[in-house]
Amino acid sequence: MTNSIALRTVTVALVIIAVSVGFYVLRHSDEGDPQNLKYILWKAGLYEMDIDQAVFTMARDPRRDKLVIGKTKQELRDSFGELLNVNEVSEYYRDGHNRGWKDKDALFVRNSPWMIVFDHDKATELVLMKGY
Questions:
Q1: Strand 122-128 vs strand 114-119: parallel, antiparallel, or unpaired?
Q2: Do 49 and 77 sit in the same domain of this protein?
Q3: How buried is 74 (Cβ within 10 angstroms: 0-12 exposed, 13-18 middle, 19+ buried)?
Q4: What are the residues facing 114 on neighbouring strands?
Q5: For the chain, how many structural domains are there in total?
Q6: Among the three residues 10, 45, 62, which one is the final residue of a domain in this structure?
Q7: pLDDT confidence of residue 1
Q8: I need a labelling partner for 116 at 20 to 30 A (CA). Which of 47, 55, 84, 108 fits?
Q9: Whole-angstrom Cα distance, residue 107 to residue 94?
Q10: Which pTM value belongs to this model?
Q11: Residue that wins the pLDDT comparison between 42 and 13
Q12: For the segment 40-95, what is each residue's pLDDT rounded down to a tens digit?
């Protein structure tokens, strides 16, 4: 009889967990939501999310700096793929770089408004270059 009770308890627990995960996934189904399960798994290195979508979602992620700060250029290339030099981005982004970070080593994440500032090959600042 105890095996039967234990089996029912485990079954109920698994159903509760499955329903909870299902509700969470439905509640955070928007791909731009930083609480979206795909984005969370991407940040943990457990899911290969579309990088452009991940970069877009970063704008709404209050913990986005943890993705960048302290990492080397190579580690960031491994995470984001293409990083562009200041001379490879639009004039708008170049102007923003020149206004506050002119003497700083900086790269841009893909073709996005995210600029990463480096000090000795380590990221020290993540800047969203909108309305600078």
A1: antiparallel
A2: no
A3: exposed
A4: 128
A5: 2
A6: 62
A7: 55
A8: 47
A9: 11
A10: 0.79
A11: 42
A12: 999 998 999 999 999 999 999 999 999 999 999 999 999 999 999 999 999 999 99
Do 23 and 57 have their domain in common?
A: yes
Q: What are phi and psi of 89, to 5 degrees?
A: -105, 175
What's the pLDDT score for residue 39?
94
Return the structure tokens found at 83.
Answer: 């990083």
Judgement on whether residues 55 and 73 belong to the same structural domain of the protein: no
Domain span holding position 127: 68-132
Tokens of 117: 């500032």
Q: Where are the beta strands (DSSP E) in the chain?
A: 83-85, 105-109, 114-119, 122-128
Half-sphere exposure of 44 (CA within 13 A, CB side): 10
Calpha distance 9→16 (Å, rounded): 11
- Same domain? 116 vs 57: no
